[in-house]
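## tool: complex_structure
## caller: assistant
## args:
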Amino acid sequence: MARSKAHYWFVGPALFLMVLILLLPIGIASLMSFTNYSLGNPGAEFVGLANYEKIFTRSAYAKMFGASFRYVFVVVPLSVGLGLGAALLINSIKRFGDVYKTIYFLPVMAALIAMATVWEFAFHPTIGIVNSTLERGCGSFLESWSWYAHGCKQGFPLWLTDRDYAIWTVAFIGVWQAFGFNMVLYLAGLTSVPRELYHAAEMDGAKSAWERFRLVTWPMLGPTTVFVVTISVIRSFQVFDTVEAFYPQGGGPSKSVYVMMFAIYEKAIQQNLMGIGAAITVVFLAFVMFLTLAQRWLVERRVHYT
Amino acid sequence: MASISLKAIEKSFGETSVLERIDLDIAPGEFLTLVGPSGCGKSTLLRILAGLEAPDSGDVLIDGERVNDVRPADRNLAMVFQSYALYPHLSVGQNMMTPLRLRDLSFTERLPLIGQFLARAKYRDLSSQVSDAAKVLKIDHLLARKPGQLSGGQRQRVALGRAMVRKPVGFLMDEPLSNLDAALRIHMRSELAELHRSLQTTFVYVTHDQAEALTMSDRMAVMMDGKILQLGTPDEIYNNPRDIRVAEFVGAPKINLLPGYLDADGHAACEDVVLTRVAKNCSGDITIGLRPEHLALCSVKDPEALQGRVVHKENLGADIYLHVILHQGGHRLVLRAAPIEGVPVSIGQNVAFKLQHGVAMVFDEAGKRVDLSHEAEKAPAKSGVKATVPEVA
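## result:
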C-alpha cells in the first residue's frame, strides 16, 4: 500500500493554528511569569519563582483569592440552582413558557458592562431604587428583623462601597446575569429525558413530584449538570466587567472585590508588570484546568450511564 | 388476579378521535392481547387502563371498582414499556427494587445510608424478593450491572422483573418484544406465555404483530381505527373472522382476496373460482377470502383443478409458498405446498391446484362476513358431487 502524506495536510492547518494562537501564547505567558518583563523594556531578567512567591505570600493576593473564591462559591451554586429551578418551572407550564424564557434570558443577552452602570444607579445610596424601596418598609413589621431596624436608624448599607457588602453585591449581579444561561442549558437537557421514564416511575409508585425528580429528572440531568457547573465555574472565575465598571481603580473597598481577572488586568496592563501578571494568569489557568479535569474524571464517569 | 373492564371508553386528541366507545371485559387471570396496525389506538387504550392517560368519557373498572380517579401508582398494575424504561443510573437490582422501595418503605427509610440503617430487616426482605424474581427470570447473575451493560433480551427480562417483583394485580405490556431480534422474539413468546401460566395474573398485551397475538393469548381483540373489530380466541379470529380487515390482518402470508359476485343461486364466484355453498340475504359484489392453506396442488386432470403460472416461490423449509397468477382473470394467489410437492416447482412453471371444501370465506361490499350454508340442506346436491369448482372454461 502506497503511503500518502495527505493526512498531514488534513491535520496540519488545525494543528498549526492551535499551536500559534493557543499553545504558543500559553507557553510564552508561563515563560514570562519567571521574569520581570515590562512592556517596552528591551530585555528582562530571569527572577525564578519570585513572582509566584509574591502571589502566595502577599496579603493583596490573599485578598485576590478570597474575592475570587467568594464570588465563585456564591455564583455557581445559586446560578445553577436557580437555573434548574426556572427550567423545571418553565417545563411544567403549558402556556407562556416562551415569555418566561425570554424574560430570564434577557440579562444574558444584555452587555454586562452596560448593565453594571444600571445596577450602579440602582444601588446608589441616596438616589438608588434599592435603598429608597427599603426605606419605605421602615415602620412596618419588617422592623422586627434587627438588620432591617438597624438600617432604618443608621441608613441602609452602601451596597457597592461597603467592604462587608461589596463582593456579595457583585456576586448577586453575577447570579442575576448567569442563571438565565444555565436555565437554557437545563431546558435543553430536560427535553432529552424520555417521557416513558416518568411513566415507569409513576407505575412504580413515585407519587410526589420530589420522588419523580429524585428517581428520574435529577439522574437524567447528570451530564447537563456537569457541563453547567463546569461552565459556570469557569465563567465565574473570569468575572471582570462588573468589577472594572464599578471599581476602575483598585478592586473595590479594601480590595474586597479584587478578583483574579481584575488583578491580571491591573498588574499587567495598568501597572505594566508583565511578569507578575503572567504569573497570576498561569495560576488562573491552573485553577481552571484543575476544575475542568476534576469534573471530567470524577463526575462524568458517574453520570454517563451507557 | 383481577378482572378489568372498560366501559364505553372514548378518547380523542384534538380533532382526531382515537377510541370510539370501546367496551372490553377481561377475565381474572386471562392473557388478553390488543392487536392492530400502528395508530389504531391500542397503546392509548392500554395507557388509559394504566391511568397514564385519561379517557374523555367512559369508565375503567378493576375488580368491579371504578378507578378513573385513582392515580396510576395506586391501581397496582405493572407496566412493561416498549423501550423498557429502565432507570439508567441504577443497577439491575436497584431497578427491580425501586417499586418495592417506593411502596413498602416510608420517606425516612428511603433516605440514602440512614434509611438502610433504620430499616435493615425491611431492606433484607426486599432484596430477597428481588433475588427471587431474578431467579425466576434467570437474571440473578446480572443484579449488579447497569442497564447500559446489558443486551436487549436481558433488559427485557429486567423490565419484566421490575414489573413482577411487587406482585401486581395485572400486567400491562406495550409491545415489549418489538425491540428484540427475530429469534429472541420467538423465544420470548413462549417464555412470556409460561410466565403468565405460572403467575396466574391478568395480562393485557399490546402488539402490532399478529403472530405474537395468535401464539400467546387466551383471547385477542383486533383493533382498527379506534374500534375493536373482533374479540375472540386466536382460533376464532383466524378461522372465523367477521370482518375482511380482521381476515387480512391476521395470518401470514396474508389471506388471498378475490373480487367476485354472487350468481343467481347465491354461489360466490370469481372467474372460474366458484364456491359450492351459498350466501343468503346478500347480493351484489363480494370478496372471496382464501387462506394459502386452503389451496393445494393437484393433478391437472383433477376435475376441480385451477390453472396458473408460478411467479414467485418462498421456501420456509417446512412450508413452501407459491405465488400463482391464475390463467383466468390474472388474479394473484398465494398457496401453501408441502416441501415434497413444492420443491420441484420452479418459477415460471404452470401448476394446477384446487380449493379445499367448506373453508373459503365471503365478505360483502361493506367488508362484513357473509355466512354460507350448504345448498344440500335445502335441496339435495346432484349425485352427491360437491363440485366446488365446476370447470367453466
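## assistant note: Chain B touches chain A through 27 residues (CB under 8 Å). Residues 323 and 334 of chain B are 4 Å apart (CA to CA). Handing back to user.
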